[in-house]
Amino acid sequence: TISDGNLSSIIQFNTSSDTVILDWFGRRINFTRLTIGMRVRIRHASFMTASIPPQTTAFEIQLLR
Length: 65
What we know:
0% of the residues lie in helices and 31% in strands. By secondary structure, the protein is an all-beta fold. Strands 1, 2, 3 and 4 form a four-stranded mixed beta sheet that branches. The protein is globular and about 35 Å long.
């Protein structure tokens, strides 16, 4: 992800079959429905790697309007 076009804000979120992906209404959707440029809210682990870009595990991804 990237926030407001700021390259220093990039975070890589790792997903698994346990990651819940929701549309605007809170209904489950497939990962394949996500596309570049969508606005999302991600609930993630509290840790991040020290790599560049930092990485962490995504638990839930929800589309925003």
